[in-house]
C-alpha cells in the first residue's frame, strides 16, 4: 500500500502502558508523542512477520476472535464483498 511520506495514526494505550510511556518520556526529556513514534517505528523495523508471529499478534488483539467470527457469519449470510470489488 503506497503511503505519503508521513501517516498519522491514533493509538490508545491501556493505563499501565500509558504510565510507562509517560515515565520514559519524562526521563528522556522527550514529548510522549515523539517517543511513542520512535518506539513504534523501531518495533516495526525489528518485527519479523512470519506466520507464527502474525498469528500471535492477531490473537493478542482484544476481541479479535469475536470479530473474525462476525466476519464469517456475515459471509455466510451473503453480506460479504469480494476482494476484487473493493
Helix amount: 55-70%
Distance between the termini: 14 Å
Q: How many structural domains can be distinguished in the coordinates?
A: 2
Largest sheet: none
CA-based gyration radius: 18 Å
Number of continuous helical runs: 4
Number of E-type strands = 0
Order of helices and strands: HHHH
Low-pLDDT residue spans:
none
Average pLDDT, rounded to a whole number, is: 87
Structure description:
With 86 residues, the chain is an all-alpha fold. The chain has two domains: 11-47, no CATH class; 48-86, no CATH class. 59% of the residues lie in helices and 0% in strands. It contains four helices and no strands. It is elongated. It starts with 14 loop residues before the first helix and ends in a 10-residue tail after the last helix. The model has no long low-confidence stretch (mean pLDDT 87).
How are the elements arranged and paired?
Blueprint (H helix, E strand, L loop, with lengths): L14 H14 L3 H15 L4 H9 L4 H13 L10
Key features?
mainly alpha; elongated; 86 residues; single chain
Short description:
With 86 residues, the chain is an all-alpha fold. The protein is built from 4 helices and no strands. The mean pLDDT is 87.
Amino acid at each position: 500500500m503506497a503511503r505519503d511520506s508521513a501517516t498519522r495514526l491514533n493509538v490508545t494505550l491501556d493505563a499501565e502502558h500509558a504510565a510507562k510511556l509517560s515515565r520514559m518520556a519524562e526521563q528522556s526529556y522527550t514529548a510522549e508523542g515523539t517517543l511513542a513514534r520512535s518506539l513504534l517505528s523501531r518495533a516495526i523495523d525489528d518485527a519479523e512477520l512470519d506466520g507464527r508471529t502474525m498469528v500471535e499478534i492477531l490473537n493478542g488483539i482484544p476481541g479479535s476472535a469475536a470479530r473474525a467470527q462476525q466476519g464469517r457469519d456475515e459471509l455466510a449470510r451473503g453480506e460479504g464483498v469480494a476482494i476484487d470489488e473493493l
